[in-house]
Amino acid sequence: MRALIFAICFAFIVVGCSADLASYVEPPKIEDGIETSTLTSAGFDSLKVLELSKKINDGTFPGVHGVLISRKGKLLYEEYFQGYDANTPHLFYSAGKIITSTIFGLAYDRGLLNPEDRLIKFYEPYYPSIQNSDKRKESIKFKNLLTMSTGIECGILGDNKTDINRKMIKSFRPVKLFLDQPMRTSPGESFDYTDANIQVIATAVATVIGNDYDQFEKNAFLEPLQISAENYHKGYLPRDFLKIGIMYQNNGMWNGRQILSRDWIEKATTFKIKPTVPEDIADGYGYYWWLKKFDYRGRKVDCYFAAGNGHQYLYVVPELELVVVFTGGNFESDFLHSQPHRMLQEYIINAMILKDSAATKILADIQ
Question: How far is CA 169 from CA 95, 162, 163, 199, 341, in A?
Fold first, then answer.
């Protein structure tokens, strides 16, 4: 009798599940190099993930434009909201800093630049006379640029009067302007988030590869990942951003081709400095990658992620072979990290279940 009651109850559950699962469709296969599969075949509770879609649609998670989930290199879930679609490019703002880190890594792989190279020595042939001379300044290395820890006084981020990056944008000699700034602390001593470092690194890369940064980026990075240069200049497509995460998750491999070295990926995505942000946002910083631990079945798993204004996020969780992309329009939000972090934890990581469980097999049959 008890078995009969259980069977009847479970039948009602399955019927309810099937109605929800009817809205789930495996992402389309297109000629972009990304393989696709289903949530259940990759070990997800589909209902839990679809609950995220409902929460986005009912406004619980506002301003979300797109969600993409990949595991083991296969795209499992791709949904868009508020009229956005797969062909809508997004500027990724500060999340794009990991592109700069990647380009530096490509130069590193070719023996052209090294994080241990000293900044002043590198630029000395071009700027032999630097203001505010300081022994601490002479010890700045490129790794300090990559970890936001040069010690140079960069002003207040976003402030028109003091932000050195805003002054550099208007300057004919932006790198010289940066190098001329006084020192605030010793290199590596403190985390000081600024956009100014990006210009200095991009100029260094352009210098060592022959002053054609865009062509180097196109040949060594965009084309191998099948990213359209035209779309890139307008912004990245969500799938393009996902490709970067999959490449990192695969230790620099993309469709059988080694694009970026495993050595650089390990350097870029491991702890280098403690950022001056609350620990619920991030507990570490690599080479422009933020680091954080998430909960998975009673233990912690490491994650590195890129974060940009408006909720442009790219998460990579190596142990779970998981890559997640969020695009959005929350430009005036006061929950910069909390909403994407919550969506990832509660509706994606928590949705990962054992592939051989009975429930997963049943849900797979329904699909």
Answer: 19, 13, 10, 9, 32
